[in-house]
Specification:
The chain has about 120 residues and is mostly helical. The chain has a domain at about 1-70. The protein is about 50% helix and about 0% strand. Helix 1 (about 10-20) packs across helix 2 and helix 2 crosses helix 4. About 10% of the residues are buried.
Length: about 120
């Protein structure tokens, strides 16, 4: 099952560099190690034990690597799309930022204000 992951020399070099990195995100390093272990013929149980992961995780990243190569190991989450700043929204923002804050004190709290 693990034998269908075959790496060319460039992929082997790139994954080895990523797996040894101390500056890349830990998840990316984990995925590089996982693919290297699959390419070396390690069993799922060995990978599960050494990387402390599960079989579904191994299968997910193996499939992503087989379909997209090294790019499949990257997790890009673009986040929320940008909102359009309409004149009405701009007016609301400016209005809210120009208001003086209202100081609300809990009941029973005495404040002794003294001019400087």
């Amino acid at each position: 099952m693990a034998s269908d992951v075959v790496l060319n020399q460039e992929q082997q070099y790139e994954l080895s560099s990523i797996a040894q990195s101390r500056s890349l995100p830990a998840g990316y390093v984990f995925r590089a190690k996982l693919i290297l272990m699959l390419a070396n013929g390690s069993s799922f149980s060995t990978i599960q034990q050494q990387l402390q992961t599960t079989a579904p995780t191994i299968l997910r990243w193996k499939q992503r690597f087989l379909t997209a190569g090294l790019e499949g190991l990257d997790t890009y989450h673009p986040g929320q799309s940008a909102t359009v700043l309409t004149p009405a929204l701009k007016a609301r923002i400016l209005s809210a930022t120009r208001k003086k804050p209202v100081m609300v004190l809990p009941i029973g709290v005495a404040v002794n204000w003294q001019p400087i």
